[in-house]
Protein 1
Amino acid sequence: MPVERTEHRGATELHKYYEVYETIGSGGFAKVKLGRHILTGEKVAIKIMNKKDLGDDLPRVKVEIEAMKNLSHQHICRLYHVIETPTQIFMVLEYCPGGELFDYIIAKDRLSEQETRVFFRQIVSAMAYVHSQGYAHRDLKPENLLIDEDHNLKLIDFGLCAKPKGGLGYELMTCCGSPAYAAPELIQGKAYIGSEADVWSMGVLLFALLCGYLPFDDDNCMVLYKKITRGKYDNPQWLSTGSIMLLNQMMQVEPKRRLAVRHLLEHPWVMKDYNSPVEWYSRQPLGHIDEDCITEMAVNMKRSRESTTALVKEWRYDQTTATYLLLLSKKQRGRPVRLRPEPTVCEVSPLHQGLQTREALHFSEDEDAVIVGSLDFCSDYIDDCPWLSVQEYTPQRVRGRPDGGTNKDTRLTSPSVEKRYGHSPSAERGRTTTPQHQQKRVKDQEPTSENKENIADEKEAEHFALPPPRTPMSNKKSARPNKNVLTTPNQNISVGTPKGGDSASKEHNKKRVAENKDPALEILAFSPERRSRSLDMAVTGDSGKKKRGGKMFGSLERGLDKVITMLTPSKRRALRDGPRKIKAQYNVTLTNQTNPDQVLNQILSILPEKNVDFTQKGYTLKCQTWDDFGKVTMAFELEVCLLQRPEVVGIRRQRLKGDAWVYKHLVENILSTSRI
Ligand code: ADP
């Protein structure tokens, strides 16, 4: 079957059950998009992988899927649905709106011991469970821990996990994980016990939480390995004696001398202020059947409870499994166990018509079903849709976040800002509606394609509200770009600087970077693979193969495509609307300026100096750095936005790809050089 045809089939299959929104992350293998499960109305994360791009890494995805099917725990991201086509794999996952733990750490500089303990207990809980199921994770790092809407951690990325046939006590050989977090025995290529290696990584992670930087770090790979093998690191003066002791017990070079996870469960440092061991058993055991969810599904499907139960118990990770697990999740969050009610006249979906039939929930094999949702699935299309891309995703406000840590870097927004000023949805939207009024409106409102743009902003509402109408009033004051400023978003539509393209300009880049003498940039320019790749990938030498050959042309073509889409009326409309108004949150850096165009210009003038290519969409800059082979080493977004309280310009940062620590240094460097 031709590739296009089969990809469309996968897209069709996905769109039968989900609405697909913007990209919220990307990793070594996948692009992750925000989605919504149509039947339950629940938000989900959709991990999208092209088999062709995966190449030899395809087995890893299979490993990840199998592992996630076998793991159900309050601190592990839940897998709901797997859709596989001849060309693509979609994994539908629990959505974690709070972003990566990594971003949280860097926004706060470092965490207090108290806050670290809250998170670390959750990590221990997840890892004790993972190990109890016979798995080793092997890629523990703060980028693989996401924060959910209740500010709890969820472990992701089981692509490198292992389940030794003879049990966890059996030795493994594959060297994998991220170098900075890898245990000494692992980087030495010795046989190792997966759970012991995980404890070392947990030690590195604990250090990163408490200190805001890594215990073992070096630009030079060999020097880094030596440091890890020696196991010597400096303890900063702010660490308590208890923290120093625990770190030391976890980062023991000799694996047998390391603490085991079972010791961590009731370690004095872990128990402090809690006086109880970590609860590690699953609160959501696999295979559990909830009668309320079954009843709702049975009613919706017009079939008996018995047959519905039998269907759910097949655990096929299809629409039935997804519907059941998402209903259960609703119930656990105190939401009504209800499937989406009858559609209104304006949205009679084929899916709903289908659901009135007996087999409605079990039609994953039905290739000819009509697409539901207003977007034809195509990731680039979604990326280029102005109503999706301009109103970008931002992690939602985190509830009940304990304040801690000493944020010395005043450029980074501390959650206390948010606490101080609170949240006022109506003020944010420039409306006069009361919260109650708004909530009612939200409940009464049937979702339409129009309201997709605000999906991530609507943090309290379980349903999807319409965005505020774009009237002149809603864009008043400084929200509009100042036409007199030299570089307004409307005028300066860049398709990336040409230097990412050929080797001569790469040489030029190198020279400029060398002149800059910035260590972070040196890493990007000369050894971009060193830190952002997993060890075993480096060993197998598969780096960069995905886009090799077509990269430059692909990039140019995409660039041209963007210019063309920029000229569409809807795109122009999006640009006219000015910067987004958002609330202060931890991935937003506050400036002391009030003119967004000025801030944008300052950043725009700095990016080329830092060898960062960018594409501009209104006030959002999609940034990329490249290696000498034309491979993207880092992708991130910087968005100039307006904060309500205090009324200043903010810069939203989001890493999409690349090593988290290199990203941290680069963005800090850009923002400090921009003097904003
Ligand atoms: P890969 O396996 O390709 O490395 P990941 O599973 O690590 O991909 O996902 C890449 C990124 O996408 C993550 O670092 C995170 O920022 C985002 N992401 C992944 N899963 C979710 C999720 N369930 N909810 C929200 N964001 C997610």
Protein 2
Amino acid sequence: MNFLVTGAAGFIGSHLIDLLLTKNHKVVGIDNLKVGTIQNLSQHKQNKDFTFYEGDIANKNSVLDAMKDCDAVFHLAAMADIVPSINNPSEYFNANVNGTFNVLEAAKKQKIKRFVYAASSSCYGLPDIFPTSESADIKPMYPYALTKRLGEELVMHWIKLYNIPGVSLRLFNVYGPRARTSGTYGAVFGVFLAQKLANLPFTVVGDGSQTRDFTYVSDVVDAFYTAMLSDVSNEIFNVGSGGTYSINKLISLLGGDFINIPKRPGEPDCTFADITKIKTMLNWVPKIAFQSGVTKLLNEIDTFRDAPVWNKESIELATSDWFKYLGERNY
Ligand code: UDP
């Protein structure tokens, strides 16, 4: 099969391309290079099985063009991060909802044989039940979560109505080399590794007892590949590590001083995927234990040299709209 990967130059997209090329598939990647970087794909520059399109999924013709010789689609392209989605929801709606609509319409037109969507576990908001299963309530807390969920609804609708076989994968806190650091205040690993390199204290939110289902990127791309090769269709699957780990545990593994910064309103004290469904129906299991994942990442800490270094003051400034809109409410 010839695959299209949208969001090819991003963190997860580029790891997926590494895997697909190792398995000797022909791969086309599309990315607008707004968040992803071409360096994430530099290892495939000379590979004749890989074609890169610099293009935006918000542009129908770019998507059609990139998809023209493909049989199956991995749709990962999206705007990520919470803070900018609160400041600028229209950009998120355009990329994550309209962009997904364009990819689906192109898939319909091209008679794509299989479609796998990267959804976000942020759709569960502040879950009531742990581990959280796919049937839990949907409660997006901010525009990033909402737009990824709207994208998922579109995908599931197109799968059913237009008979495009496919599934959606709800990813829980993916981490690993090339984790996105971009200009905006974002995922914890980029923040902490840059702080470690700069010999600055880790900025621990709250008392650090909150836990996340940190899932290593090689397990995540393996789930994408497994989902693509399966015949199972019209299903949504959680993709998690099988555990949940506190921020205090993370800093003990990373090693270094820390300071505490205010708890962020509207963020869950725990994320923890129930992965029974994907284990049973797709026969997928996570392989990388948290401690080994963190060790692997520490071995590549130098790749975070260019990441922005955040401190208490700059985080306070960057998250002011977060506190403004989500603060002082009883969730
Ligand atoms: N976190 C932290 N310090 C930071 C950034 C994040 O302690 O500077 C914590 C945050 O409270 C959360 C976890 O790290 O419990 C993961 O945060 P991230 O923003 O990566 O993901 P999300 O909150 O969306 O799960």
